[in-house]
């Protein structure tokens, strides 16, 4: 594991939808960070040093040298990291409880539903060595259902939960790959409009380019 520089957050990550969330958040909040690549194609996520900060051997994970009480802290799981950084900075994570509940609802909708299901769609549509029609149809249809949920939520709204927030960051990195999931955003015009808007943000572009 790389030595953390004072005041600079180490982001152990790779170029995946989950992996891009944290550089985007750090760019949005203006926090100094360093990307520590974890090449999941080579199995580097199983290295003991990485497992020490991410016991589920999944990216991303962070090491913040200036954690609570000024002491270092490690955080794994993308949703937990987004919440932590939001609380740390007051950025993109509202303090009003009613609004925060809405942000949390859509954040957990992404990490518990949208991400895993779209990940399965990616796998069976593109990466599986054997094409299994049942699996392709199952996860493509579930992707369509979830995009329908997202499209209805964005009807008359600019963002998922009030202002732009960590819920949007969590979702955009997956929705960016809608074509791989068998999704044409022409069928989901609110999603297409929202996606164009969030992907145009300079911090989002810098975060996507960081890995």
Automatic annotation (TrEMBL):
Parts forming coiled coils: none
CDD domains found in the cross-reference section: GST_C_YfcG_like, GST_N_Ure2p_like
Gene: yfcG_1
A Pfam short name: GST_C
InterPro entries (UniProt xref): Glutathione-S-Trfase_C-like, Glutathione-S-Trfase_C_sf, Glutathione_S-Trfase, Glutathione_S-Trfase_N, GST_C, Thioredoxin-like_sf
This protein's name: Disulfide-bond oxidoreductase YfcG
Source organism per UniProt: Methylobacterium thuringiense
Spans through the membrane: none
Record-linked PANTHER family: DISULFIDE-BOND OXIDOREDUCTASE YFCG (PTHR44051:SF19), GLUTATHIONE S-TRANSFERASE-RELATED (PTHR44051)
Gene3D superfamilies associated with the record: 1.20.1050.10, Glutaredoxin
Domain called GST C-terminal: residue spans: 96-211
Domain GST N-terminal: 6-93
Top-level lineage group: Bacteria
């Amino acid at each position: 594991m790389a030595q953390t520089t004072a005041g600079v957050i180490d982001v152990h990550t790779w170029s995946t939808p989950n992996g891009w969330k944290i550089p985007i958040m750090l760019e949005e909040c203006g926090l100094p960070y360093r990307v520590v690549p974890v090449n999941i194609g080579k199995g580097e996520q199983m290295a003991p040093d990485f497992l020490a900060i991410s016991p589920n051997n999944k990216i991303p994970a962070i090491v913040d040298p200036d954690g609570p009480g000024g002491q270092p802290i490690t955080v794994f799981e993308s949703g937990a990291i987004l919440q932590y950084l939001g609380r740390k900075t007051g950025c993109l994570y509202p303090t009003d409880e009613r609004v925060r509940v809405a942000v949390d609802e859509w954040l957990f909708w992404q990490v518990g539903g949208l991400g895993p299901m779209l990940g399965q769609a990616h796998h069976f549509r593109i990466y599986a060595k054997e094409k299994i029609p049942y699996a392709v149809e199952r996860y493509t249809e579930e992707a369509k259902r979830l995009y329908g949920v997202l499209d209805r939520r964005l009807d008359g709204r600019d963002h998922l939960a009030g202002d732009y927030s960590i819920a949007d960051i969590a979702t955009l990195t997956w929705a960016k790959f809608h074509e791989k999931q068998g999704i044409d955003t022409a069928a989901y015009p609110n999603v297409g409009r929202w996606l164009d808007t969030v992907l145009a943000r300079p911090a989002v572009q810098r975060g996507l380019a960081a890995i």
